[in-house]
Write a structure and sequence with these properties.
The protein has 193 residues and is α/β, with parallel strands linked by helices. It has helices at 16-25, 43-46, 49-61, 80-91, 146-157, and strands at 7-8, 27-30, 38-41, 72-76, 94-100, 108-115, 118-125, 134-142, 161-172, 185-192.
Length: 193
Amino acid sequence: MSQTDITQADIRCISQDDAQYLISLIRTIPDFPKKGILFRDFMPVFADARGMQILIDALIKALPVDADQFDSIAGLEARGFLFGPAMAARLNKGFIAIRKAGKLPPPVHSCSYALEYGTATLEIEDCAVKPGERVLIVDDLIATGGSAAAACDLIKSVGGEIAGYSFVMELDGLNGRKALGDYPTSSLLQMPA
């Protein structure tokens, strides 16, 4: 399948040339990880110096809220770890790791959520978020919104406040934003599920 089904969303904040270059780096792999799924691989963006610079610049320009409205960035394992720290460093913010279960030393806080093929659990270190800390949640993809909503619940359970969400890609037709409520949300690219 060609990449022509990937369209710009909030990426309009960068030049058309840069947007098309970024889109050109994203591979579409049919039937991975299982039959009927179109996997969007944006890892080649990180192997390309220009692509990575465009991505970080675009994510910052498309923030769903002003940078002064959040104190830290929380990235979901694993791809949120690739660009979340770069965004945090550029914006002079801290970075919070939201990990899969069993990856952090205790004490941790946990939140489980449903997947289309089972359940998963996210964890955060007990001391990662200060009471009242305003957090922007970042991840590579929003599909159904389950993992992002679980991250929200997890941050709120330890006293944090959600400032908004920032995604690289958004799958159309799965209503993922609905699972996130009224929080400000941005995504750079949209594509069919």
